[in-house]
Design a protein that fits this description.
The protein has helices at 2-13, 17-29, 31-45, 54-74, 80-102, 107-110, 112-117, 123-148, 155-162, 164-187, 191-205, 226-240, 245-270, 273-276. The chain is mostly helical. The protein has one domain. Helix 9 crosses helix 12 (226-240). The radius of gyration is 20 Å and the shape is globular. The two termini are 32 Å apart.
Length: 277
């Protein structure tokens, strides 16, 4: 019985507040290196291009323009202006969410040699990827908001006044959830194939290309989808100046629990990572 108790205690130690705080503190110490390497990845991505990272926002802007034109024509949407605003903000946030999740499934696998041959805490790779995704998001998001504000001037004031808390939830979520996906992907390589399918299904079931009202009696389904709720809170705050404090606080607590579990899971898997890769 003693050895069973020892094993359980050893596993639970990884989820103790002291252990979680140590990992977060280590990630904070590595922030400058992570920021430098993530910025270098962005520069490398657009090397020898004239517009550089401006392409991140421009590609989204072109996609939004084409989708808006096609869907307003096909579905005969009368108010093209409102639909373009609704679609544009939804698409740019969804692209950031889906990219951060899909790229996480094989993050540690891609860094296999570094993990096996160095003593760097594995939180480095998750923080670096997180900063890379945040940089890409804000480079795209800022251009989209500035462009769409031509159609509605209140977008930027709404973002500043009402959008901070929803954006905070978004920033926390795109760290811990991809990290969990990453850790699961190390043990089960099928996750790499499954994640794009699940993301496509979530996208089609979420009112991003279509209005929430089109779901009719099935609108309650979106309340069970935390990925969409994070998107919806940001979009409602920017478009309508609405902030659902109670719902946002619930998502925030959900994020804190997710962050705690993901860091604890990383601590637990740390010593076994070289053998799993």
């Amino acid at each position: 019985m003693h050895w069973i108790f020892t094993i359980v205690k050893d596993k639970m130690n990884h989820f103790l507040p002291k252990s979680i705080f140590y990992s977060l503190k280590h990630g904070w110490k590595l922030r400058r290196v992570c920021f430098y390497t993530s910025t270098a990845r962005t520069r490398e991505r657009f090397v020898r291009t004239k517009l550089g990272s401006f392409w991140i926002g421009l590609s989204n802007l072109i996609s939004i323009s084409l989708l808006s034109l096609v869907y307003t024509t096909v579905f005969k949407i009368e108010n093209m202006k409102n639909y373009t605003l609704y679609l544009g903000i939804g698409i740019v946030i969804w692209n950031a969410l889906s990219t951060s999740i899909s790229s996480a499934s094989n993050l540690l696998i891609q860094n296999e040699q570094k993990i096996k041959n160095t003593n760097i805490h594995p939180i480095f790779y998750s923080v670096e990827e997180w900063l890379f995704q945040i940089q890409s998001f804000f480079q795209s998001f800022s251009l989209i908001i500035i462009t769409l504000s031509i159609l509605k001037l209140m977008l930027i004031p709404n973002l500043i006044i009402f959008g901070i808390l929803p954006l905070l939830n978004f920033i926390i979520f795109i760290y811990w959830f991809p990290l969990l996906v990453c850790l699961i992907g190390v043990k089960f390589r099928d996750i790499y194939q499954l994640v794009p399918i699940m993301l496509q299904l979530i996208f089609l079931l979420s009112p991003i290309l279509y209005m929430k009202e089109n779901l009719g009696n099935l609108e309650w389904i979106i309340n069970l989808n935390p990925i969409y709720l994070i998107l919806d809170h940001i979009r409602d705050a920017i478009l309508f100046g609405e902030i659902k404090i109670e719902s946002i606080l619930i998502i925030f607590l959900f994020n804190i629990c997710g962050l705690y579990i993901s860091i604890g899971s990383l601590n637990k898997s740390r010593k076994f990572l070289p053998f799993l890769l």
